[in-house]
Fold this sequence. Notes:
By secondary structure, this protein is mostly helical.
Amino acid sequence: MFIAMDPPKHDVHRAAVQPVVAPVNLAKLEPIIRERAGRILDALPVGETFNWVDRVSIELTTQMLATLFDFPFEQRSKLTFWSDATTGAPDISGGDFISPEERNKALADCGETFTRMWYERVNGQPGNDLISMLAHSERTRNIIDSPMEYLGNILLLIVGGNDTTRNSISGGVLALNQHPGEYEKLRQNPSLIPNMVSEIIRWQTPILAMRRRATQDTELFGKAIRKNDKVVMWYVSGNRDDEAIEDPMSFRVDRENARHHLSFGFGIHRCMGNR
Length: 275
């Protein structure tokens, strides 16, 4: 997967799918997102307890993922299942959410499904979905010859689109309920909403960390790091750095420079969807 690649190969794979999240294309999706969000919210029970993550965060995220992949809408729950299977194994999550056997079966199903979709798209007219972009790009059209690389890129796009959005929607609702004063600010001044989104992404930090491999011996704050050592970058820690962010533990919808966060990484591997 290209998140684990160095240039120039990384740049080739990233460039092939970058257009799907270009501002002009995201603007075209706004009416669809608004319509689906409204329909989901209108269907929520009144006066009853319900699971917000299942009913709203996961459902809206999965619907939009299916659109980006042009995935069969009635089978969209598979995308969430494959994402959770990818990140829920004990060796990745530290928990016991899915057995290795279940995970392997899920990923095999994912690979078969997206391989079939590849051949359908490559033999058809170029489209604006992620699979078509990979299949018809001059520089990635042969990726199907490396099945594990192809599957890795697909899973990266699924997880990247699923976890960040789902966690941010959930964390945002939690933050506004825990900080009613900030919610009242929004009610009084809805123009704060764009800034609130950035603050939610900082405060929630939907992806906690990322791991990299050192390319050479170095020293950081007195700690020796050897070539090929694995280094974990804790985004959630960076987003609580009081040397860079004033009162970082607080949630403020009107925070100045709210976009000054590390939730989407930094450098060449910065999240494609960051805006």
